Structures are given as C-alpha cells and as structure tokens.
Amino acid sequence: MKKYFLIILIVFAICQLKAQKNNPVNENASAGVKKTLRFLYDIQGKNILSGQQNYNSDRNVFSDSAKNITGKYPAVWGCDFINWGDKDLGPQIVEEAIKKSKEGYIITLMWHEGKPTDSPPYEFSKNVIAKMSDAEWNELVTPGTDLNKKWLAQIDVIAGYLKQLRDAGVTVLWRPYHEMNGVWFWWGNRKGENGISKLWKMMYDRYTNYFHLNNLLWVWGANGLRDIPNDEAYDYKDYYPGASFVDILGADVYHFDYEQKDYNDLLKLANGKPIALTETGELPKAEILKAQSQWTWFMVWTSWLWTDNTHDRVKEIYNLPQTLSHDEVKSKLDSMK
User: Fold this and answer.
1) Of 29, 200, 203, 231, which residue is the least packed, with the fewest Cβ within 10 Å?
2) Mean pLDDT in residue range 252-258
3) What is the domain partition of the chain in residue ranges?
4) Given its phi and psi angles, is residue 54 left (phi above 0), alpha (psi -120 to 50 degrees) or beta?
5) Helix (H) and strand (E) counts for the chain?
6) Are 198 and 131 in contact (CB under 8 A)?
7) How far apart are CA 78 and CA 107, in angstroms?
C-alpha cells in the first residue's frame, strides 16, 4: 500500500512540474494565453500550423491568396505595427486582429520599430535598417536618460494598441526585436548583458508589470544563422534574454536555409519550449519538416508566397497530414477547456 501511495505521489509531482514548465512566463497571463500556449505544447512534434504574414496596409491580401491557392485559410494571421512614413495604421491593425481572433485565427504581431534616436516619419531603409553608436545604445538602456524616455514614449504607443487587444480578449503572439542576431536592424548584433537582452527585458517589464498586458505570449524570433559578409547572423545563445522572459523561440529562414545544425541549436536553447518558423520566404520541403518535426508554425512573409513559392509547393505543404489550417485549429481550440 505504501509503495502504491509513493508511486501516486511521484506521478503527481511529475505532472505538477510539467504543468509549471509549460506555464507562460507571465504568471498573471490570461486564460487565453494559457490555452494557446498549452495548445502549442500539445502539438509539438505532431503538427505544424500554417501561417501568413500580411502588410499593415493590405491586411488580408496574402492570407486570402493562401486560401485561393490551397482552398484553406492559414491558421495564423500576422501583421506589423511598422510606421510607414506618416501613416499610423495601428487602429486598423487592432480592428482586424479583433475580427480575426473572433473568427478563430491565432494572432501574431510584430514591430519594425524606428530608431529611437530619430523622429517620425520613419523610412524603413533609413530608420529601421540603421545603426546606433555604442554611446547611444548605452544611453538607450539606461533608465532616466533622455533617449530612454524617448524610447518609453515610443513603445507606449504600441502598448496602447496591445491594451485594446487585451481588453477585447485577444491573445497575441508578440514578436518584438526580431532577427536580433543579425547585423541589419538598429537593435541587431548587441551581445552581452547590456545588449539586446537588456532592451528585451526592459520592454517585458514595461508591458507586463506597468501596462499589465497579460494577453501576450512572448516570441523571441532570431534569424537563421548565416555567414554572408556584411549580412551575418550569429549564434542564437548570445542574444537570448533567458527562459524567464520568453515563451516561444523562433527562427526566420529564407532562401531554403533550413540547416539541421541551426535547428538543433535552437531546440537546445529552447530546452523544451515550443519553437516556430517565425518567418519563411520559401516554404520548407516536406522532407525538411520530417527531419525538423518540432516547428509549431510557419509564417510565410507577405508577397514571398507569390514570388518565391510555386502554387504546387504551397499546396503540397498545406496538404501535409501534419499541417493544420484555420478550420482545424479553430475546432481544436474550441474543444479545449
């Protein structure tokens, strides 16, 4: 009898540890966040969600294109808070995200943030693809400085939109400071405790503890490793803020650069957390997905669906047994308690 009771205690303890490990990093996360994250843990190694990124000015064009090509809508709808010139399309993004969430789509949002040393209107090639001096960066990550205050005002605008989504009950896969291990964005290639990890933690603290954005799942999306001169992307681990600040890890992979070593490195860093193809140009081939079965979603980047994928490839990947489309995911999520 004692032995039987001991076995029950051990099983219970294991279940408790697993449940704790699978919890969102924000202990006050909403029920929707917990449900979505649990779903992603559930499909690890079994399924991959289809996803499509849309421009903020054309919020449905590419998702509709996926449907026209395959007969299925992607399960994940994505958009970007980027401020093109003097156009702030935040209100339209919020409206569409609420609509899509009610229709059963999983929502992912990102932000090509303009360099805080600059002022709007922003140009992508000048204010996002940009550099900051070491002195500017140190001022940025030092609380109370003029540049830090300017950054706070900048991120607070986006927090306002995310708050509207929170109040509407929309769970968001939030992916800030993406491709941080690359050399092209102003936040890129900043290693060490005072680098991008610190800026990530500062945003996390502001959004979680000040604004109480408990509707966010924090997605850390690096770039696939590469050694192209002046276009490098370096080891994932040097830019990772730590497991306490990240729910899901991802990689942006273009030009069929689905290296098995890079995938294995990301899996090791994730240490059991879900991983995703947070951006793709060319969809992975079926044999790649077989060898790399832990990806929980893929996200085709906007018009690359047209320009860098054949219709046959798109249909092939959407029709794989493990690929889940919108209707299938909606049904599964609706059935979860």
Assistant:
1) 231
2) 96
3) 32-335
4) beta
5) 12, 10
6) no
7) 6
196: left (phi over 0), alpha (psi -120 to 50) or beta: alpha
CA geometry: angle at 90 spanning 56 and 141, to 5°?
105
3-state SS class at 120: coil
Q: How far is CA 29 from the centre of its chain?
A: 17
How far apart are the C-alpha atoms of 286 and 267, rounded to whole Å?
Answer: 19
Tokens of 214: 């408990």
**What DSSP string describes 155-213?**
HHHHHHHHHHHHHTT--EEEE-STTTTBSSBTT-S--STTTHHHHHHHHHHIIIIIS--
Share the mean pLDDT of the chain.
93
| pTM metric for this prediction | 0.94
CATH: 3.20.20.80, 1.10.10.10, 3.50.50.60, 3.40.50.1820. Which one for 32-335?
3.20.20.80
What three-state secondary structure class fits 133? coil
Specify the residue for token string 């109480």: 212
CA distance 313 to 182: 28
- C-alpha–C-alpha distance, residues 160 and 157, integer Å: 5
